[in-house]
């Protein structure tokens, strides 16, 4: 507490500029920060605030979140708490596929506005991270589309000296609009990669069946090219999506509604569903394909399949954030994700004391006294309000602020003192004195 009291006034003055413009001044040298988070970190260094304990903790928290990430399945939402005097960053690991569009939104509630940095990192097979997207400096929202099929990590970290409750939600929608008016991916009946012509070739798209004359519409903004006729596709057209570096292919059209060079927007009619080309003996449908500017055909399904809707996890009661709890079962697993299917980080014994730092009604995100974080099922833990047992201290001992032999002593407790045991962890007991003071003592 001494450090915070002695430096908070100066930090508030210096960080006021950070909240407004993500930087205290120009950076030096060749390093050019590429995200608001990096700009903020560089500004801490320029002001030498990274040399303070609080500033150094902020830097370490951001780095630690890249290695100690939690695993989730989208859509997902959970709540948590940012503390002004204990820098925090949370990393969420998830799978992303080319064609997905993710929306990451962080809502905060506190006495003052909080700048939250949302960054997305690609994870290679060795766990190495590389920044691929970042929220803008003036918003806690990020729209992002993966360019590769791989694992990604979303890191969420607030600025210094701000306390707030937060809710993070992550949802997935298709990157492109559906290309047949009034239909959706449930009308697809032939998929990418299935054999054609007795196995001599593979299907390079999806077939979407609809009545003849149904509008086939632009699924992205772009420029029309390749309007014409070919043997397989019959009446065809392309829409070039420069932003995503994709060529979107419409085939078997009954007739066109565009011409080469025409600029179109999402929802504009490209043509009308038919069965021209080699589909003359088949019911009317749109053959819809996607090709990279510098690659071959890619599976269109992820680009247009139905989204998974909003996150529906039941929210954790705000009053539970920061509460201490203990394991109620004989043992329970601390898991890397809010599911019994995720990897166990550590087995926790009965009565192990934990702190709730976030999560949902059914899966609590907790911190152990030795700094591990993960999820436990809410049904496997209980509040520490009811003591496990009581005992009389036989020799004088120090009441510590953590379950660690190097922890700071809160005060000395005299022999003969009555203590109530609320929980345990690694050779220490969490105890409560008759005056209500709580701390740790060695077993």
Automatic annotation (TrEMBL):
Matches recorded under PROSITE patterns = PROKAR_LIPOPROTEIN, SH3B
Membrane-spanning segments: none
Q: What is an example of a Pfam family matching this protein?
A: Peptidase_M23
Domain SH3b, which positions? Answer: 322-385
**Which CDD domains does this UniProt record tie to the protein?**
M23_peptidase
A single Gene Ontology molecular function, please? metalloendopeptidase activity
Note the InterPro entries from the entry. Answer: Cell_wall_metabolism_enzyme, Dup_hybrid_motif, M23ase_b-sheet_dom, SH3-like_bac-type
- Record's PANTHER family? PEPTIDASE M23 DOMAIN-CONTAINING PROTEIN, PEPTIDASE-RELATED
Q: What protein name is recorded for this chain?
A: M23 family metallopeptidase
Q: What is the scientific name of the source organism?
A: Spirosoma rhododendri
